[in-house]
Amino acid sequence: KRVIFATGNENKMREVREILAELPVEILSMKEAGISSDPDENGETFEENALIKAKAVAAVLPEQLKDSVVLADDSGLEVDAMDKMPGVQSARWMGHDTSYRIKNAKIIENLEGVPVEKRTARFVDAIAAVLPDGRDLVVRGVIEGKIGYEEKGENGFGYDPIFMLPDMSRSTAELSPEEKNEISHRGKALRQIAEKLREVLA
Ligand code: ITT
Q: Which InterPro entries does the entry link to (predicted)?
């Protein structure tokens, strides 16, 4: 069985390969499948956007890949003190090409004076699957945490350096890849979808 993962984000792709390593399927990135797709992610929820991305790729599968499962990930950071922003806009917030150094500094600045108990935030990940027969499934994984006071750690990507575990001991950029995948939104969502795929592909 073959799975095509509909993302242009190489960091996501790396985590997906790590987390789904045990699943007895071949995983191809869009690049490896020779597909390019960049649909308008105009949904209001992570779930809607994940489905938009998966369906867009399922619609343009070349003949020899028609029996593949297509997966897509829509994820982001909800900061409670910012009214759950950047949320579904996490990639485009402050502009797609703005560096995460700058985006992370902006979030820390926005939270200046906000006490630790009000710095709550979460990473959310919706994973959508479109099966060869056209059926679709969507799951959600969440990790709760708090926004830190400075960037910490070199691992991970995106908002990881400011996303602290609830006890403020470490950021998710200070976790090893294995530690992050064990508790992350993406790890939780992908393990759920893997479970469902085992049933429907059996
Ligand atoms: P695709 O749509 O091609 O998959 P994207 O990067 O545009 O790639 P999203 O629209 O889902 O994907 O944007 C999610 C953003 O949220 C992502 O670019 C990161 O900045 C952030 N994000 C998601 N998961 C994260 C994680 O595990 N650690 C840090 N930041 C994360």
A: dITP/XTP_pyrophosphatase, ITPase-like_fam, RdgB/HAM1
